Amino acid sequence: MLNEREIESCYLGQFIPVHYHHNMLMDANRMVNFKAAIEYAVKPGMKVLELGGGTGVLSCFAARKASKVYCVEFNPDMVREASKFLAMNEGGDRVEVIHADAFEYLPPEPVDVVICEMIHVAMLREKQVEVIENFKQRYLKQFGGPLPLFLPEAVLMAVQPVQQEYDFEGFYAPIVQFQQPGVVHPGTLELGQPAVYSLIDFTQPNDLAYRWEGHIAIERDGVLNALRFVTKNILAVVPERSSTIDWLNHYMTLPLAEPRSVRAGDRVQVSFAYRAGGQIQSLQSAMRADVVAAPVAAHA
Q1: How far is residue 97's CA from residue 106's CA, in Å, rounded to a whole number?
Q2: Which numeric CATH code is attached to 155-292?
Q3: In CATH, what number does 4-117 get?
Q4: pLDDT in tens, 17-53
């Protein structure tokens, strides 16, 4: 029988089916940048913990330099798969795959780096923020400071007003859409620039609740019928190059309950609230967008 947390995990999608992991392994944007960040952050001889290991690929990257990697996975199917895959790869013998709940597990010794990729757009559905905040408290109680380096180190989240096409071969269906970044999407008209609404710094304590209200300038005429959510994961900060290694999640576009006609120069007051790890519907039901007339220009 599944316990309460396992039931919630199945419902929210944290028990990702084995066959879906192929999509993540084929995502070059994800793989290349995580590999680069791990190669930069993990130094020879370090101890590493991965929370939510999946196939074990990120633990395998870490094991190329680390002396020991603890790979924690809650899904029993993936525990078996990760163990099998790691046995096929160089350095896999330095990875210990552990069937455990990331909300409860502590390594038997202090670690230098913690990798956690339970990331969904806007920090919804998966439990990235809650898992790390919970882990930090238990780790400090058990081992004292300092805390290990977390990868990703930070997450930047933004919202953007858009006009989104919802006609599918004559079938109208305003539905959540996920779009690859860096690609032109003909059915999407960007009405304004993204506005940053939260920066999560994993070296600091973080709240699980997000509430934002702000104004966004409209740059072109159109119908505001959706909000696009942008999530940029800062995997590693590279101070010697004054740069970062980043991973941009797929954009998530959510339809608004009440579309609004807008003109260039208008301002839109946008508001929403949700909890990290919650369902997409919890954010969508709280979204509001009201048009504020363009300010009257002052005359000399």
Answers
A1: 13
A2: 2.70.160.11
A3: 3.40.50.150
A4: 777 788 888 888 999 999 999 999 999 999 999 999 9
